[in-house]
Amino acid sequence: MNTEKIAARRLSLEEVMKLGVKDRVFVSADTAELKLPDCYVPAFLTESGEDFKGGSITARTIFKEEVSCLPDSEDEAGIYLADESGSVTIEVLQSAGVVLDLTLFVPGADKGSLTALYAAARQAFGADIVQIWRQGLKEVPDVKVDIFEERIPRGRKGGDSPMRDRRAIDTYPTRAEFIEFSAGRKLVVEVHKPAVDDTPTI
């Protein structure tokens, strides 16, 4: 386990309430999935401290976990800020790397091309570094589609025509599964129809 000892000081609730969502703090690394008592991780508040309305403060760690705590409670690990003149030294868990959750489109993919893809990744980062933990393969149709956002109608039916915004033109509809759409809008996928210019020419 890779950790680093840093000088820090524990923050009071009043001090936490002065922090914003961009201020880096340290919270307990002890979770239900991974027991790490007396160890801390870098984190950021999920909302500005000034918006605190009681209850517990919630922070999101760099490992994408949400941790809730009461800064002033002696029964909890608390929230710390790095401070060279701080009165305590805390042990901070370091990052070992990142897990990439990617969607790769490999044209005409077969076992040989996938093997070559993994081999290239291992050559770039080291054979002991790149590990394929989960592999999901999915064939995609060879068809070009239009991906739209369409406003979800409210009120009575038969009113204004749907308002659409094109998000993408793609050769496979799978990409639509990974696009984040705006609130109040829904996904529409249609077979692509090229625009035809009927403007007469001279």
Automatic annotation (TrEMBL):
Name of the molecule in the record: Uncharacterized protein
Provenance organism: Streptomyces chlorus
